[in-house]
Amino acid sequence: MPASKTSLLWRCPKCDLPLIPEGRSLVCENGHNYDLAKEGYVNLMPTGKKLASTVGDSAAMLVARREFFESGFYEPLRQKLVELVIKDSPRVVGDIGCGEGYYIGGIAAALPGARCFGTDIAKDGIKMAAKRYPRASFAVADTYGQLPLAEHQADVLINVFAPRNAREFNRVLDPSGKLIVVIPAPEHLAELRERNGLLGLQPDKLQAVVASLGGEFKLGDVISLTYVLDLAAAAVGNLIGMTPNARFQDDDEPVFEAITTVAAFDILSFDRLS
Question: What torsion, rounded to 10 degrees, do the Cα atoms 229, 231, 236, 242 define?
Answer without folding.
Answer: -50
